[in-house]
Amino acid sequence: MNNLTRLFASGLLLAGALALLALPAIADEIVVRDLATGKESTIRCFEVTSETWSEVKYKDRKRSADKSLATITVVSITRSDKSNDAANLAGAIDTLDRGNAKEAAEALQAISGGGWKIDLETGEKKYVSFNKNDPTGKNKRPTWISEYAHFYYAKAKFLHGQDAKDRDLIEEAYMALDDVAIPGQATAKTGGFLGRFSGGNSRFYAEALALKAQALTALARYEDAGATFKELHTAAIKIPLDPRWAYEGLVGAGVISEAKGDLTAAVTGYRGAMPTMEVLLTQETRDYMRQRYGRYYSQARMRVASVKLKDAETRKAASAFADLRNWINGGMPDAIRKAARGKGLPPASIAALVAGARDPLVQAVGYNGIGLAYLNEPKPKYEDALLAFKAVSVKYFQEPEQHARALYYLAQAATGASGDAKDEVKQMYKSMAEEALNMLRSQHPDSSWANK
Predict the structure, then answer these.
(1) Contact, 204 vs 56, CB < 8 A?
(2) Is the CB of residue 289 less than 8 Å from the CB of residue 344?
């Protein structure tokens, strides 16, 4: 090797070494989204140092100053921690994402350390506060694993209680969410998530507020639930938070009325959220965020349709189904476009509203409602109903509840259509009904629709 070659090789090695030194020794990853374009990108950093509902802080290098990002731009955070607790946490969250809330709650409680436990020596059931072992002093906070495990435990416990319709489980979820007195333990408190990370000192704080409001509703503590929904909506505008949380707060009045069984008030409550979502949309200047507000405007409209659908299914009145069909047709993309133009909304806002009307869940609820309206007319229009239910079964299978509903009623519509049909056509409708029921039982075996 001549001197020139050696010099060139040495230069490459030095450049490579410098490049390696420039990379963080440990790499946490933050996926962020541009709020104008919706484009995602990844930031690799030495360490994420804190996560609040307004900002996420991180260090590029071990001794570098903190940098910050608005939490509203953060899509996800991946930690480089390879400890057993981190691995167990990831496994428990995955279990929850797969729908097994009971198993996830058990795994997450083992990591978080809080909640009701049985003393192995005395056999006594005692509540362990979630902040029992928290560090103290200025700028001290729980570890990220403790924070994540606490939040996801409360969420899993609530979802388990909701699925099982178990008030005691929902009460346990509430105690893990709110910092309240422990029954029978003098002045001790639960160290609930919202107290432990008071003032929004966690990226999960907004969702924890929403869960608290839902838990309070399920526990029939409606006044407290209403105040919590309002707190969430107010914070969403002030901080600001993702449009989802403005929506979750605004529909609170409808959620509470529906829980009370007052469907008329529920319709009023859900409709009441729509004008505010529209105003927030028209004030927004970033395209991606406009799309978010447009989607949640239609989600609020869909909630009205869901209540009207529930009312129509209960009363079996032709007028109720006609009202439902009119409401749904008014939320279809072309109708939304026409109504928005009539209000003089700017083109960008109209485009966002139309995009929101095309949201899969909105469309699935809409077509199911239209199908039911046709099915329940004085003289049922079976063919029209079949077309509506088929649209859901083919296009919107990713919405399990609505997909199961569509298959159930598709079978009914096909059976009805077979009544006056003859020969091969009659057999075709019977086969269609049988196929729909088989699909319902195989794809949604645990659904209430599969067991009717």
Answers:
(1) no
(2) no
Bridge partners of 12, per DSSP, are none
The rounded distance, in Å, linking the Cα atoms of 307 and 295 is 19
Tokens of 14: 């030095």
Residue whose entry in the numeric block shows the structure tokens 């970033």 = 286
Q: Are the C-beta atoms of 390 and 411 separated by less than 8 Å? A: no
Residue 61 makes CB contacts below 8 A (sequence gap 6+) with 24, 46
Residue type, 194: L
Question: Which of 32, 33, 68 minimizes the C-alpha distance to 49?
Answer: 68
pLDDT digits (tens, 9 = 90+) for 28-81: 999 999 999 999 999 999 999 999 999 999 999 999 999 999 999 999 999 999
Place of tokens 């950093």: 45
The CA distances from residue 147 to 109, 156, 388, 427, 443, in Å, are 12, 14, 45, 59, 36
Please tell me the distance from the alpha carbon of residue 104 to that of residue 152, in angstroms, as a whole number.
Answer: 8
Beta bridge partners of 58: 48, 67
Cβ density class 206-234: b for 16+ within 10 Å, e for less = bbbbbbbbbbbbbbebeebbbebbeebbe
Q: Is 189 helix (H, G, I), strand (E, B) or coil?
A: strand
User: What element of type H or E holds 202?
Assistant: none
Alpha carbon distance 67, 63 (integer Å): 12
pTM: 0.86
Locate tokens 């447009």: which residue? Answer: 294
pLDDT value at position 4? 47
Q: Are 255 and 226 in contact (CB under 8 A)?
A: no
Which tokens go with 257? 């009325």
Question: Are 52 and 205 a contacting pair, CB within 8 Å?
Answer: yes
CA distance 284 to 304: 25
| Cα gap 353→333, rounded to integer Å | 8
Residues 293/299, Cβ–Cβ less than 8 Å: no
